Amino acid sequence: MPEVLLSLRDVKVHFAPQAGLFGGRGGTVRAVDGVSFDVHRGETLGVVGESGCGKSTTGLAIVRMVPITEGAVVFEGLDITQHDRSAMRPVRRRLQMMFQDPYGSLDPRMRVDEIVAEPLVAHGVGRGEERRRRVAELLDMVGLNKGMAERYPHEFSGGQRQRIGIARALALSPDLIVCDEPVSALDVSIQAQIINLLEDLQRELGLTYVFIAHDLAVVRHISDRILVMYLGRVVEVATRDELYADPRHPYTKALMSAVPVPDPDAEDAREVTLVEGEVPSAINPPSGCHFHPRCPFAMPMCREEVPALRPREGRINACHLYA
What is the largest CA-CA distance in the chain? Predict the structure, then answer.
């Protein structure tokens, strides 16, 4: 088996909402509610689910940008759960993040060379000419001309800004990059260019990705394995081909049913799983299996007992149907 680079063990991230206009806070938001998974070196683990399921918060927990309520994050064999800012500094050289919004993630007051060199400056890597050469190398690596280094972010398109973000993430030669919906704000044609760039960089540099997205077509293209989340919990983990050919968890089946098939005959012939209602509140989630109020296959035990995420009939899922 490939080396395990990152492990999350029963990670929980709960937030206490700030008081509203009329006072009361109204409970605790269970954004991530007991997530466990491994990421192997060199692979791309896709993370999918509806908006509000905890995907992005899980990514922020990995890079320790939000406080962890319970559980453990282990990176390269080191438990970083309780690391403070100074203890995280050497870890951040090997653990980076790409953000969703290429417009909001770049400082508009900084030139591109300053943005890309910022991690080098923060960690005291190189000096003067050495840094300039590294910036030029990184820009070339992501398909940008070194002559663009003195421009400002507003002078670039969305796709070019995301390339700048990728160059910044690569500056310290990390082992793992958490990609938080890196193409969702881009046009479809530009999405394909960025995905292809990420795949090329992974082959060249031996990178490992945790790729968070809601677009199932994008996730299918780039991922080796896929993790499905619902309301702060993992409900299924499978290889890309297994998940798309034979989803097991009812929620995964519903997600796959929402993906259009270009062949009308195949569309008519396929089995469709429909769910009704809205995602429940993370402040007051349902008892037992969080999905049971919307699940067409729910049983009495689903309302009472939380299904463990474990191998069931040769696949890893959290569903009483396969108990």
Answer: 68
